[in-house]
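FAQ
Q: What does a multi-component entry look like?
A: The components come first, one per line:
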Amino acid sequence: MKNITAHRYHNGTPHLRRFHQARWDEPVVFELSREGQRGVLVPEVEAGIRAEVGDVLNTLPETMRRKEPPKLPQLSQAQVLRHYLRLSQENLGADLNIDVGQGTCTMKYSPKINDQLARSSKVTALHPLQDEETVQGILEVMHGFEQALKEISGMHRFSLQPGAGSAAIYTNAAIIRAYHEAQGRGKRKDEILTTIFSHPSNGACAKAAGFKVITLYPDEADGYPGFDALKAAVSERTAGLMITNPEDTGIYNPKIDAFVKLVHEAGGLCAYDQANANGILGITRAADAGFDLCHFNLHKTFSTPHGCGGPGSGVVGVTEGLARFLPVPLVDFDGKKYHLNYDLPDSIGKIGPFHGVAPVILKAYAWVMSLGAAGLREVAEIAVLNNNYLLKKILEIQGVSAPYANGKRRIEQVRYSWKELTDETGVHSDELGIRAADFGVHYWTSHHPFVVPEPCTLEPTESYSKAELDEYAAILAHVAKEAYETPEVVKTAPHNSTIHTIDHAPLDDPSQWAMTWRAYLRKTQKGRDEGAAG
Amino acid sequence: MPYEDVNSKKQIIYPYIPNSVPEIKQQMLEEIGAQRVEALFEEIPERLRFRGRMNLPKPYLSEYALMRHVESILAQNKTCKEYLNFRGAGCYQHHVPAVCDEVNQRAEFLTAYAGEPYDDHGRFQALFESASMMGELLDMDAVNVPTYDGYQAAATAIRMAARVTGRTEVLIPRTINPDKLSKIEDYGKPDLCIKHVDHHPDTGQMDLEALSALMSNRVAAVYFENPTFLGFIETQGREIADAAHRHEAQCVVGVDPISLGILSPPSHYGADIVCGDLQPLGIHMNYGGGHSGFIATRDEEKYVMEYPSRLFGIAPTRVEGEYGFGDVAYERTSFAVREEGKEWVGTASALWGITAGVYLALMGPQGMQDIGRGIMERTAYAIKRFAELRDVRCPVFEAPHFKEFVVDFSVTGRTVKDINRALMAQEIFGGLDLTGRFPELNNSALFCVTEVHTKEDIDRAARVMEEVLK
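Then the predicted structure of the entire assembly, as tokens:
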């Protein structure tokens, strides 16, 4: 027998994977349609009903009756399944790749047992308006999870209602607005301060809630705004500060308590965007820095799967004085039974329907219950260890740097810059990312604007092994080497993906863009006619 | 509940944390020149450090123990599989085809996030197809990648209308779901002024004279729903849209997508922006955690540029005949330009959006017609059956109904609470008590009937109520 294994290593180090993404060249679902095919049949109405009610459609006025059936595709069941399974294979989930390339998003492992528990009909088949006595189980989960969040943050009460992180950020802004209105100074308090390395939604949600937004930029050396910059921005108009810490650079602002104090002195509130909490669980808490509000993303720090972009969940915690503004209902416990408490006269009202994203909350609860206090701290410690380990490996690559806070430890992620590589090779960060996809990993540049030039943000979380971090670093090292030696290979990537380079021009051209198949058909009618003629 | 033993020194290797193995940890620390993990937190000053211990329950370290714990809690729940359910009011018990769950449980979809089209072609195509199928259902050309839920979709659709018109007043009938109204009021605070349009108490239909009196060139939008929250159909869609358009206001309509196999899509009676919730389309109720909001418009730049959501479009690649997908007009989003973008965009409900697409692909045109008609027939039957109950007024609104209807118990001498208690004793969740939700509907209940209800289910609920009302 030939030694196959020996050819998979070089000096004990594994070669890069000869990866190729699935390529089914799958048609758009409408192309699979054949007249008359059915994917699922609906329960028949009993004759007894039809005999009683007659032709119900006749009770509709002509204008309210649909004349033509919707032009949906017509497929048999297995065709639908095959189509979507092919599309799923053409998608690179976190379960498949070393997903450290989507920094700020905490792409950790989502335990399968938690998904399985949430798929129980004891969760899926609950109606949100059932009588409380019939939903004591899910209310116990929500209440128990709130108690855990209070311990993790030091805050007084939590709402689990917001649909994800940005909805939670918006909730923070709405509570800040309600607080100032209750003080009778809503009009005068109309500015929110944030930092450029806080998530874009801090500015965008504050604006949507009616505030003016002032964005602070980092001090060149430290990587976070100087105290003087904050001082210059704070005024009697300051309604609040909405800030991430560590910021998206992975740099912790050690003056955060002084920031909070200054804003408090101006009569503002401080909201802590804890999207980046994974490295500080059990290490430092929102309450310790004096924050009035905070939020966590359960699909980030608390392990629930990201679902291609939701459903997630964003939970909002507040101090005792702000609890009266939270969305309704809250889940209370009287020692015997769990209750939904709607009795908050100053509540901002509803942020979303019902009680939040229950299956996601259940998964997060199960995750906390599987780890406990020591386990959560282990999460933070290993996430930070992994990050500083990966930092060392990445900085060994030619052309990359980690701007700001030179020589200092980072918390859970690092925003890197490939500026030197770009200057020397003409290859840009996004091109490196597309080439990295050829090796089976995802890589993201960073949120706009690119204050750090040619950026990428890597966040290894606690979920990846040392060998996996080594593999990711080896892929980036290889791609960077290609940029120097054979840049055209990088610039023409992807080579091993489902598809090839997209022409983005039509997507920004109103005469060509098509968000639906019907719009595409309309806009390409001319081309299709010619095709048919040919 | 037992709390964690603070003094426990047992070394735990966490299955979710590969590098919790002490030897590996040590090796990594050495590589980065650190003595202890603690040293990596040196940038966090001592005064900010939490030196206490989080008071959390003792963990269930084995997967089995965790499963036992969670299942024992959940066992307390009584579900709509165990009980016969007549509650709707924005969250609906429809049958979820097995293929819907099969697809949304796929790890590639379930655990993906924000990959580029080169990592995640499948996600882009699936969401483009969902928008495309919704486009057919709604007969509109532009549909968003879904937002959180129908509440957010309505609130955003209305703010889009305000931006399109540059106006601030919004007219909404009083028959709207009070919770959804609460959301719209909060969300509209910075730039909207909401006014209520009266309706005819007997039919629920919007009072067109009242509407006309409120119309002016300050009105950005008239918003209404079909079917309405109270289950009746607003049959004057065309008249309402015309009234809005006469003053160059937008007509914004919230719609239940499962009704559209038989009901006219709002675009046919003049709606400019259509919104709603995808939950009825193949997504479990999940205690209210299965929502997903859609927004649709005509494919006109003035509308498209006002969406805050991502919009996925189809595009060529450098290979002939190969489909690619990407973001349409990305520069309008807060991802691109922070607070200069339209509202905001973030993680919302993409997986439910994919699921709704699977549902529509399974149902096809015939399935959507069948389910729409079947629901309407069962609704009509339930109305007829409940109307036979002593002293009950059913339906409260004289109009065609879809899926839901209001039953008034106020002259029966029994409260909705009494009725629902009796139903519950027979393992039936009765209609939603509207007492306190609508002043004029005290002691009325909102019942919901879908394709999951058989004739016998409806008859059984009627018999129990008959008994109480004797």
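Q: Is there any commentary attached?
A: Sometimes. For this entry: The two ends of chain A are 55 Å apart (CA to CA).
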